[in-house]
Amino acid sequence: MSVPLPGEGPRAGQVRAMFDRVAPSYDLLNRVMSLRIDQAWRSRLLRELAPKQGEAMLDLCAGTMDVAAMARRRVPGLTIVGADFSFGMLSRGVRKTGLPAAQADALALPFQSRSFDLATVTFGMRNLDSWEAGLRELARALRPGARLGILEFFRPETAGTRVVHVAINKVMVPVMGRILSPDPAAYRYLVASMERFASRPEFEEGARRNGFRDVRGETLFPGMCGLVTAVRA
Ligand SMILES: C[S@@+](CC[C@H](N)C(=O)[O-])C[C@H]1O[C@@H](n2cnc3c(N)ncnc32)[C@H](O)[C@@H]1O
């Protein structure tokens, strides 16, 4: 079943159903397809945000809560809450981490304003009906001065990064998705949604427009993964 892409109108129901379908094989596929580089990216994100004992962290679009799990191992005294609208993904994350979590839409979070000292969103923003509305909702849930860290497959822009993107995402990912995934269409969506999403510079501008300052971006893997950090204004 094909899921509408970014910019193709409301699609939250179909995105949620897709993640419920891939949830049982999500962690394994992530590790195999990325050769565990995905964990190195999450580790880098947490190094940048430097969570501290006593702080409250939101892991939004938490999925199976890999970021939350890593943060808990590093900072045992950190309060961590996961949020995601897919019960299939989140229930696995709760079982894995033992951490609290809320089944919730990123565009209408069930948290009071200024509840968190930091937030992470890894590979989630691309899936929202409106990533700018997602940033505004994050800004609402974060206290002024709080840190935000995003990992995302931004749209590749330069000719060089497009070559890497095509080699990895158009050739390797679909083949591995066909072999390993119960839902190969989900892996076609991953690649197509990346091409329709914002480039990293566009996303950084969006963050400045929607409540954040000190926005910084970096390419972690050309043609694939970028990191953006920002401070709630
Ligand atoms: C690619 S997974 C990433 C999961 C995890 N953060 C990771 O690093 O592996 C994207 C997650 O975003 C969630 N998601 C997508 N749109 C959402 C929305 N509108 N509200 C809440 N969660 C959403 C999906 O259910 C899915 O679990």
From TrEMBL:
InterPro entries noted in UniProt: SAM-dependent_MTases_sf, UbiE/COQ5_MeTrFase, UbiE/COQ5_MeTrFase_CS
Record CDD domains: AdoMet_MTases (cd02440)
Keywords: Menaquinone biosynthesis, Methyltransferase, S-adenosyl-L-methionine, Transferase
Gene3D superfamilies: Vaccinia Virus protein VP39 (3.40.50.150)
GO molecular function: methyltransferase activity
Binding site for S-adenosyl-L-methionine: 64, 84, 105-106
Catalytic activity: a 2-demethylmenaquinol + S-adenosyl-L-methionine = a menaquinol + S-adenosyl-L-homocysteine + H(+)
Residues forming coiled coils: none
Job description of the protein: Methyltransferase required for the conversion of demethylmenaquinol (DMKH2) to menaquinol (MKH2).
UniProt similarity note: Belongs to the class I-like SAM-binding methyltransferase superfamily. MenG/UbiE family.
Protein name per Swiss-Prot or TrEMBL: Demethylmenaquinone methyltransferase
